[in-house]
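User:
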Amino acid sequence: MLRSIPVLFAILLLAVCLGSLQGADTSPNAGYKLAAGPFKIRSTKELVLSDANRKKELQLRINSPEGQGPFPLIVFSHSAYGSKDNYLTLTEYWASHGYVTIQANHSDSHALGVKRGDMRMFLDWQNRPADISFILDSLDEIEKKSQLEGKIDRKRIGVGGHSFGAHTALLIGGMRVLKGGQETAADDQRVLAVIALSPPNLERQMSEKSFEKFAKPMLVMTGSEDTDSLFTKEAKLRRRPFEWSPTGDKYLVWVEGLDHGFGGIAGNPLRTKNADHVNYTKMATLAFWDAYVLESKEAQAYLKSEQLPAFSKQAELKLERK
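Assistant: Predicted structure:
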């Protein structure tokens, strides 16, 4: 009988370990829904909208969960020279957790023939948020063309973006910019929350005043190596949208060692591959969407806890709130 006690203990220990591997771990070190979600994904890889007012055709990619719905919507804006077919690491992950995701080819997309390094494309920054609002205006047509009738929840919408796309998301969220000495706005009241991954430091447009009225929930994510040769030579300058915004549902995720490619979220790493940085991005963004698009109390509690920093290796991730 006594000899069976070590065997019983070993069986119990194995059961605990297996439970942790299967996502049963509720300790402070647990990740937030890091595995793919329960939904199968259906992709519409090419859907074209015609904007008569701007005489423009907008190419879209849509990833959607297979199920009854309606599902919340995330519109994600690519970086300069990117495309609607980048960032599937994020958008397919969100779709697997129950979000319809829409990505567009903005006018600076390499898919439209724009060559990397062509600086003229930055002059078309106002058409980027106009693309987002046009997508929201066209949801009936999008649903019909992609066989998603009744599956997009019009009351639960978030907008995110990376780099130049983060600038677009901030404009949609309520950032004011200066153009010809006049304050310009492009905010869309249908959007509940925004995510800005690596927002650029555009000093000629942005100031502390730009964020005085930024009331929507916001997540900014950046890191110590997140620099570029054009606008942001110091990574800490990307913190400004968080620092300049008023208190209330604002979050900053800072990762030591994270560079502009976020470990490879675009599908082709801009700098270096880093699976940990990709995972931090997936968890932080999904928790934020769940918290402020789905209005999940559990997700809000997660963001207000220290679980995400505790999950990171060697405490390389810091989470600030205000």
